[in-house]
Design goal:
This protein has about 1050 residues and is an alpha+beta fold. The radius of gyration is 32 Å and the shape is globular. This is Amidohydrolase.
Length: about 1050
C-alpha cells in the first residue's frame, strides 16, 4: 500500500514547482560525500569585481575566492546545474539546469535562494544581454533564441544576432558569429543604437569548422576560442588588431567530448586575463604574457542522489512456466485453443485443458490458424536445413499435409471461408539462393500469395507487403484484406486495404507515419468480420478503432487529428475475432483474453464523458480500464535443461572469482547443476558414485557473463539453432543479456532454458525504450505500462535508450522500481547527461561516455554511486573501436571458427576488416580505446563496479576481446576476469546464483588448457565449457557429461 501511495505522490510532484514547470520526480535520498582538490570538465566564470570564481563540479555550482581556498557549494539537489555565468552587477548567476525535467535557462540570486527558471528550452551558454535584467543563451550553431527579462517577459527582436559571443564594456556593441555559405566563420560587431554592423574577423579553414566557445573581450581587442585536435584541446587567442593568433593553453583530454559539451570559460572584466578550467585545476592566464596562475580550491563535495534501484533475482532450475505464446486463437465453436510456443503448435481444451503438442515434426512450427469449419489447422514451419513450408493438419493431429511446393520463409497463413485456399505471405530475402529469415526488428517484406489446397497452385496477390501482418479474407471470401507496402518515411499511408478478384484495391484504413519504429509501428491490423471495428498492435498494447461511418478510410493513428482510438489492453498480442466479430480475443504472456468489443466502446464513452467533467484536455488515444469477460490461464510447464548427478573436477587450478581467491590443486564438486564444494583436494569430500575427472594442468574459471551482447535473433519465425548462440557457448559465454532485443527474445530465452536450443543462459530487456518507438511515454503511468509489460513476460530489466529529457529517464526509472525491475541505460554521451544517470541512482549504464577530462571527482562519484558500468570498449565512443585492435588477428578463421561461424559471416568479417582499416587511416586523430579503458580501471580500483559487455559485433570472440581490452587499461588479469564473471552477475542482480565458483551457485564454468592469470589471452584456450552442470566439449559442443551426445551444427 505504501508503494502505491508513494507512486501517486510522485505523480502529483511532476506538476508542482516554479512558474508552472514540472519538477524532477526523483528526490534526493542519499548523498555521496568526499573531498577533492581537482575537478573534471569545469565551466568557470569570474565575478565582475574579480574577487570570486563560480565553477561547476559534478552537476552542482561552487564559489571560491579568486585567490583560492575552501569552495562553497551553492546548489544541492538532484538537478544537474552547469555553465554558470555572473550577471554584470555580480548579484546573480545564470546557468543551465534540468531541475524542471529538461535543460532550461535558470537564474539565482547570489545572496539568497531565489531561483527563476525560464520556460524555453535553450541549449548553450547563458548570456547576459544588457546590463543586468535580460538573459538568453548562445551556442556554436546558427540558432536564434528569445531574450528573457527577469520579470518574466520575453521578446524576440534579435533575429540577426543569434550567436552572441561578447559585448563591449558599455554594452553599446554586440559581438556575434555567423557561419557563411562559404564555410567561413565571421565575427560581427553590431551597434545597438544604429543597427550598423562591421566584420571584426573571418575565420577560415580548420578554425572555422572546429572553433568552439568563441569569445570577444569587452575591450574588443581579443578573440578566443577552443579547438580540439585528437586528444588535445587548445585555448587560442587572436589579436583583433593584428589578426595574429597564438595558443594560450593546451591540454590533453582522456576522451574528447562533443564540441558543444566543452566547458565554458571567460575573459576577466578588465579584458586582461582569461579564467579557464582544465587539467583538473582552475587557471587564470594573463593574456599579454601567458603567465598561468592556478587558483587552488578544496571542495567538500556532497552529491545528492536518488534511492538506489537495485532488484535481485534468483536463477531457478525448476520447471519453466512458458510465457512466450503466440498466435493463440480459439476454434470457431470456441471449445479449443491453438497457439505456438517453444517452436511447436499446441492445442488445449477451453477453458482449463492441458496443452498438448498438436503434431510432431523434426522442425519448428509457428502461427496456427483454424479453418472456418473448425476441423483443420494450418501453420508454417522452419527447418535450418530444408527451410520453410505451409502445412495443414486436422484438429486431432492427423492427416498432416504439406500445402506449399516451394521452400521459403512463410508467415501467417489463413483460410478462405470455403476452405479451398490459404493466403500466406512469403519472404523474399535470400542468400546464395537460400531463403533467409528476418532480423530482430521484424521479418521484413515479401509477397502475399494464395495456395490452392487441391493442387498447391500459387497465385501472387501483392508484392512488398509487410510479413508481420495476418491476411484475412472478406466475409464473402471473394477478396483479401491485407497490409500494403509503404513507400516513404513520413506522411499519411494506407495501412490496410482490400483487393477483389478483379484486382481492384480499396483503402480501408490509414495512419500517419513518421518513420516511427520501422516495422514495429501499427502491426497485426485486422478488421472485424462484421465490418464495425479495426484492432491493431502498437508498442505492446492493443487498440480498437470504430470504422469510419462515412465510408472514408478509417484513421488508425494520426497525431494531427482527433479520431476515436481506444487503448483497451496494456500488454497484448495477436488479436483475433471470434463469432463473426461478437468477441475480440488476444493473448499476452500465458493468458488468453476475451471481451465483447461493444463493452470496450461503452467504457470509452464513459471515460470520455468523465474526462470532460474533470476539464481535462482531449486526448488522441483514449485509455480505458476494463476487465476482460474471460481471462484464461495457459499452464504449459516444461523441464529446464539441468544436469542430474554428481561430478568432481579434481587437481585443477581454480579461479573462483570470489575476491582474490585462487585455489591450487583444487577440486570442484557439482551436484544436479550446482556447485557443492570448491577447495583444496584434501578439503573436498567426494561421495561414492561420483564421476571424477582429472584436471591436472588445467585452470578452471567461472563461465563468462556478457552484459551487452546484441545477438539479434530473427523475429516471428525462429531458426532451430541460431549460430551466434551455440558459438557463444563454445567460447565460454554461459550467460548473455541482449540489451536491445524484441518481444520475440523472450521466446528464445525459453528455448535456451529448456535445451531446445544450445547456447548461453539468455536474458533480455524486450525492446529498448527509445523515443521513436515509445513517443507517448510522457507520464509515470505510461512508463509503468512499459515496465509492467516486460515484467509479465519474465524480464529482469528495462533498457532506457536515449530518451530526450532527464524527466523521461527518471519516469522510466521510477516505473522500473515500482515494477521490481532494474533499469539499464544506453549512455548519455555527454558528461552532463552521464552525471544525471549517476545522480538518479540508476542501476546500470552501457558504454563509456565521452569523458572529456576525468579526474578524482568523477572517479570517486562513479565508484561510490554503486552503478554497474559496462564500458563496451569494442565499439567505444570517441576513440578507435576496440575490436579494430583484435579483429585483424582473428578475422582469419581457425578450425574452431570454421566449425561455429557460417561461411558468409567469415567473409563478411574479412570485408569488414578492410573497411575498418580504411576508416582507421582516415581517422588517425582518434585516440586509442585504451584511453577509455584506463578510466574504467581507475573506477574499478576506487571500488567501482565495471562489467564486461562485448556489443555482439563479433559473436563469441567479442567477449574475450572485451576482457583483454579492459586488462589493457590497467586491470589485473584477475580483475578483468571478475568484470566478466562476478561483477557482471551483479549487473544482472543475480550475484547470489551466478558469477563465481562457490557452494550453492549454478555450475557454470570454463576449463582452460592455459592459465589466464599468466596471460589474459589464455581465456580463449578453452578445453570444455559447463552450463547448468552440463559439460560440453569446447571444440565441438558435444555433450560430455552427464550423457554423451553429439552436437549437430547447422549454421543458420
Amino acid at each position: 500500500m505504501m508503494k502505491l501511495i508513494n507512486f501517486i505522490a510522485l505523480l502529483c510532484l511532476l506538476f508542482a514547482g516554479n512558474a508552472g514547470l514540472a519538477q524532477l520526480p526523483i528526490q534526493a535520498e542519499r548523498a555521496v560525500s568526499f573531498t577533492t582538490k581537482e575537478g573534471s570538465n569545469m565551466s568557470v566564470d569570474l565575478s565582475p569585481d574579480g574577487k570570486t570564481v563560480v565553477f561547476c563540479l559534478l552537476g552542482d555550482l561552487y564559489t571560491v575566492s579568486s585567490k583560492g581556498g575552501i569552495a562553497t557549494q551553492i546548489t544541492r539537489g538532484i538537478a544537474i546545474n552547469d555553465l554558470p555565468v555572473w550577471s554584470p552587477d555580480g548579484k546573480r548567476i545564470a546557468y543551465i539546469s534540468d531541475r524542471s525535467g529538461d535543460d532550461r535557462l535558470t537564474v539565482r540570486n547570489v545572496s539568497g535562494n531565489a531561483i527563476q527558471t525560464f520556460e524555453g528550452k535553450l541549449p548553450g551558454v547563458p548570456v547576459w544581454f544588457g546590463p543586468n535584467d535580460w538573459v538568453t543563451t548562445s551556442n556554436d550553431f546558427d540558432r536564434h533564441y528569445p531574450l528573457y527579462h527577469l520579470t518574466g517577459g520575453e521578446v524576440d527582436d534579435s533575429k540577426n544576432i543569434s550567436n552572441v559571443v561578447g559585448f563591449s564594456s558599455d554594452y553599446k556593441f554586440i559581438y556575434y558569429m555567423h557561419r557563411e555559405a562559404s564555410n567561413s566563420l565571421v565575427i560581427y560587431q553590431h551597434a545597438k543604437s544604429r543597427g550598423e554592423e562591421k566584420i571584426l574577423i573571418e575565420l577560415q579553414g580548420i578554425a572555422a569548422k572546429a572553433a568552439k566557445r568563441i569569445k570577444v573581450s569587452q575591450d574588443c581587442n581579443w578573440l578566443s576560442y577552443l579547438m580540439t585536435e585528437g586528444v588535445w584541446c587548445s585555448l587560442r587567442l587572436v589579436d583583433l588588431s593584428s589578426k595574429k593568433e597564438r595558443v594560450l593553453a593546451r591540454w590533453e583530454q582522456h576522451v574528447p567530448g562533443i564540441g558543444n559539451s566543452l566547458p565554458n570559460y571567460n575573459f576577466s572584466g578588465d579584458s586582461k586575463k582569461i579564467l579557464i578550467g582544465y587539467g583538473g585545476k582552475i587557471h587564470m592566464i594573463e593574456i599579454r604574457t601567458g603567465k598561468d596562475e592556478i587558483i587552488p580550491f578544496t571542495a567538500n563535495v556532497k552529491v545528492d542522489m536518488g534511492k538506489p534501484n537495485t532488484a535481485t533475482f534468483k536463477v531457478s532450475q525448476d520447471s519453466l512456466q512458458v510465457k512466450y505464446m503466440r498466435s493463440a486463437c480459439a476454434s470457431p465453436e470456441g471449445r479449443q485453443l491453438v497457439f505456438s510456443a517453444l517452436n511447436r503448435i499446441y492445442i488445449m481444451d477451453l477453458p482449463g485443458g492441458k496443452p498438448r503438442i498438436l503434431v510432431k515434426q523434426p522442425f519448428s512450427q509457428f502461427q496456427p490458424a483454424w479453418s472456418a469449419d473448425g476441423q483443420w489447422i494450418t501453420f508454417v514451419s522452419w527447418s535450418d536445413a530444408e527451410f520453410g513450408q505451409v502445412w495443414k493438419v486436422d484438429k486431432n493431429g492427423d492427416s498432416l499435409t504439406q500445402i506449399s511446393h516451394k521452400a521459403g520463409v512463410y508467415h501467417y497463413p489463413n483460410w478462405s471461408p470455403d476452405g479451398k485456399s490459404i493466403a500466406v505471405t512469403k519472404g523474399r530475402k535470400v542468400w546464395q539462393g537460400k531463403p533467409m529469415l528476418g532480423d530482430r526488428d521484424g521479418p521484413g517484406i515479401g509477397q502475399l500469395i494464395t495456395l490452392e489446397l487441391q493442387n498447391g497452385n500459387q497465385k501472387v496477390i501483392a508484392d512488398s507487403v509487410p510479413l508481420s501482418n495476418r491476411t484475412t479474407f472478406s466475409a464473402n471470401g471473394e477478396g483479401l484484406i491485407y497490409a500494403p507496402s509503404r513507400v516513404g518515411k513520413s506522411g499519411v499511408f494506407p495501412f490496410l486495404v482490400s483487393k477483389d478478384q478483379e484486382g481492384k484495391v480499396n483503402v480501408l484504413a490509414t495512419a500517419r507515419y513518421e518513420g516511427i519504429g520501422s516495422e514495429l509501428f501499427l502491426r497485426q491490423i485486422i478488421q472485424s468480420p462484421d465490418g464495425r471495428y479495426f484492432v491493431y498492435l502498437n508498442e505492446e498494447n492493443l487498440h480498437l478503432v470504430p470504422v469510419d461511418p462515412s465510408g472514408a478510410p478509417t484513421i488508425l493513428y494520426d497525431t494531427e487529428k482527433k479520431n476515436p482510438v481506444i487503448r483497451f489492453a496494456k500488454g497484448g498480442f495477436d488479436p483475433h475475432w471470434e463469432k463473426g466479430g461478437e468477441v475480440l480475443s488476444w493473448s499476452f504472456a500465458n493468458q488468453y483474453f476475451r471481451i465483447d468489443p461493444d463493452m470496450i466502446v461503452a467504457a470509452a464513452i464513459a471515460a470520455a464523458g468523465q474526462r470532460k467533467k474533470m476539464g481535462l484536455a482531449e486526448s488522441g488515444i483514449l485509455d480505458v480500464e476494463i476487465v476482460p469477460d474471460e481471462s484464461i490461464d495457459i499452464n504449459l510447464k516444461v523441464a529446464q535443461q539441468v544436469a542430474n548427478g554428481m561430478l568432481a573436477l579434481k587437481n585443477a587450478r581454480i579461479i573462483t572469482a570470489r575476491e582474490n581467491e585462487v585455489i591450487e590443486n583444487g577440486t570442484i564438486l557439482i551436484r544436479d547443476g550446482r556447485f557443492v564444494a570448491a577447495g583444496k583436494n584434501a578439503e573436498v569430500n567426494i561421495p561414492p558414485g561420483t564421476k571424477v575427472m582429472d584436471m591436472l594442468g588445467k585452470t578452471i574459471m567461472p563461465g563468462l557473463i556478457d552484459l551487452h551482447d546484441h545477438l539479434r535473433p530473427p523475429a516471428e519465425v525462429f531458426p532451430q539453432q541460431p549460430w551466434s548462440f551455440f558459438a557463444g557457448l563454445a567460447y565460454g559465454v554461459t550467460t548473455a543479456r541482449e540489451p536491445s532485443g524484441s518481444h520475440d527474445s523472450f521466446g528464445y530465452e525459453e528455448l535456451l532454458k529448456t535445451g531446445q536450443m544450445t547456447g548461453p543462459r539468455f536474458f533480455n530487456v524486450g525492446y529498448a525504450v527509445r523515443e521513436d518507438r515509445y513517443p507517448n511515454m510522457n507520464d509515470l503511468n505510461e512508463a509503468y505500462i512499459i515496465a509492467q509489460n516486460r515484467k509479465r513476460m519474465g524480464a529482469i530489466a528495462v533498457k532506457q535508450y536515449a530518451q530526450p529529457t532527464r524527466l523521461k529517464r527518471q519516469l522510466l526509472l521510477l516505473a522500473c522500481e515500482q515494477a521490481g525491475l532494474n533499469m539499464t541505460n544506453e549512455v548519455e554521451k555527454d558528461m552532463r547527461g552521464f552525471i544525471g544517470h549517476i545522480k538518479d541512482s540508476t542501476f546500470g549504464i552501457e558504454h563509456n561516455p565521452l569523458w572529456g577530462e576525468v579526474y578524482n571527482d568523477v572517479i570517486q562519484l562513479i565508484a561510490k554511486s554503486g552503478v554497474y558500468l559496462t564500458p563496451t570498449l569494442q565499439v567505444a565512443y570517441g576513440t578507435e573501436l576496440g575490436r579494430n585492435h583484435f579483429l585483424e588477428k582473428y578475422a582469419q578463421p581457425d578450425a574452431k571458427m570454421k566449425r561455429f561461424y557460417p561461411e558468409e559471416e567469415i567473409k563478411r568479417r574479412q570485408e569488414e576488416l578492410k573497411k575498418l582499416k580504411i576508416y582507421a587511416e582516415a581517422h588517425q586523430e582518434l585516440p586509442s580505446f585504451v584511453n577509455q579503458s584506463k578510466v574504467d580501471a581507475a573506477i574499478r580500483h576506487a571500488g567501482g563496479r565495471v562489467t564486461m559487455g562485448s556489443h555482439g559485433n563479433d559473436p563469441a570472440l567479442g567477449a574475450h576481446f572485451e576482457i583483454w581490452a579492459l586488462q589493457m587499461g590497467g586491470l589485473t588479469n584477475l580483475e578483468a576476469i571478475q568484470a566478466a564473471t562476478i561483477m557482471a552477475a551483479g549487473g544482472l542482480g543475480m550475484q547470489e546464483d551466478l558469477g563465481s565458483i562457490e557452494p550453492g551457485k549454478i555450475a557454470d564454468l570454463i576449463i582452460l588448457n592455459k592459465n589466464p592469470l599468466d596471460n589474459i589471452r589464455n581465456t580463449m584456450e578453452i578445453q570444455s565449457v559447463m552450463k547448468d552442470g552440463v559439460l560440453y566439449d569446447g571444440n565441438t559442443l558435444d555433450e560430455i557429461w552427464p550423457k554423451a551426445k553429439k552436437f549437430q551444427t547447422i549454421k543458420n
